Amino acid sequence: MDLHAADEQEQMILDSLDRFLETEVRPQVRKLEHEDIYPTEIVEKMKEMGLFGCIIAPEYGGLGLSTSTYAKIVARITETWMSLSGIINSHLIMASAVQRHGTQAQKDYYLPKFATGELRGGVGLTEPDAGTDLQAIRTVAVREGDHYVVNGTKTWITNSMYGNTIALLVKTDPNAQPRHKGMSLFIAEKGEGFKVARKLEKLGYRGIDTCELVFENYRIPADRLIGGVEGLGLKQVLSGLELGRINVAARGLGLASAALKEATQYSQIRKTFGKPICEHQAIQLMLGEMATRVEASRLLVESAARAFDEGRRCDMEAGMAKYFATEAGLRNATDAMRIHGGYGYSKEYPIERMYRDAPLMTIGEGTNELQRIIIAKQLIERNPA
Predict the structure, then answer these.
(1) Which residue, of 111, 232, 251, 330, has the fewest CB within 10 Å?
(2) Using CA atoms, how far apart are residues 189 and 11, in angstroms rounded to an integer?
(3) 49 and 141: one domain?
């Protein structure tokens, strides 16, 4: 596809998405979010639009979109309701792991089902005692004939209640040194021994299912081992996390942009001391900062997505985008609440939802503290003395 045709396709998709968000999603957000209701009907429409196959290759039934276009989709969805972007993101990290590292048989079987959303889910990485340090996981898979038997617990797993499949990270050799050589990644479909223990209650990011999973003698066929070779799980996961971090950066951008739009609009309507508050210098200073954060976030997200599309190592670029854009989302949500005054604290306005959603982005997909360490290490590696 030439560049012009790609641009036209992107614009058609984004225009269609904008119409969907405005007519099908926005009118329902307040009720679904406040009551923590899973958006079943919206998810079905997202399937019809092909959003679960965004970055899956066309030969497997996906849209085959670039990461750059995908990031724009995520930012737009987040401007309306962040939870929907998580429903897609976790699923596509799983799909990306299969597309990049799976055997041909795994790709042929799973990717078409992932693209349609027939099989839908996320990634099973985090455990009660292992988050940022994934090598500390304790879930174990033991080979028994043509199956593995899995025992352990996972937590904070998105799409695990209403989804049916996860990319499951386990230890196939708990004694391996270094530890990552004993880690493997499986395509795990729900079945006997795969239990959703409980749904987790959250400050924000509501409506989406986030659960704790327990595996008790869960048997998984050996041909579900991604790539067919043990010991490559952490490497397979980390390559997918670059995509995940670009997604979260795009969410930060979307939140920052939405907060700016709400604040800009409100500041022209609300009057104090005989004039709109946008004419007060204190408010102008805040709006100027907010607008700059949005534009800087946009450029960082575009840079990281472009690097990913070109196949370059981009942990530094993804880390920068994730760190800056999510902090921008948090700062803009806070500033927008202050500009709204008491109304920003009311559930009648979307600002309080943004204020609750934003902190998660600074924690999820690797904390922002970790991102700064990654940036620094890559900076040194790329610029030796």
Answers:
(1) 232
(2) 35
(3) no
pTM of model > 0.85: yes
- Residue 219: CATH number of its domain: 2.40.110.10
Q: Are residues 283 and 349 in the same domain?
A: yes
Q: Residue 1: is its pLDDT beyond 60?
A: no
Range of the domain at 180: 122-233
**Whether residues 155 and 208 fall in one domain:** yes
Residues 201 and 171 in one domain: yes
Q: Are residues 47 and 60 in the same domain?
A: yes
User: What are the Cα distances from residue 202, in Å, to 36, 207, 355, 359?
Assistant: 9, 10, 13, 11
> b or e along 24-49 (b: 16 or more beta carbons within 10 Å of the residue's beta carbon)?
ebeeebeebbeeeebbeebbeebbee
CATH number of the domain where residue 108 is located: 1.10.540.10
Q: Are residues 261 and 304 in the same domain?
A: yes
pLDDT, one tens digit per residue, over 316-374 is: 999 999 999 999 999 999 999 999 999 999 999 999 999 999 999 999 888 999 999 99
Single-letter residue type at 343: Y
Active site residue 348: no
Cβ-based neighbour number of residue 135 at 10 Å: 14
On the question of pLDDT at 84 being above 90, the answer is yes
**Preceding peptide of 276 cis, ω within 30°:** no
Question: What tens digit of pLDDT does each residue of 15-60 get?
Answer: 999 999 999 999 999 999 999 999 999 999 999 999 999 999 999 9
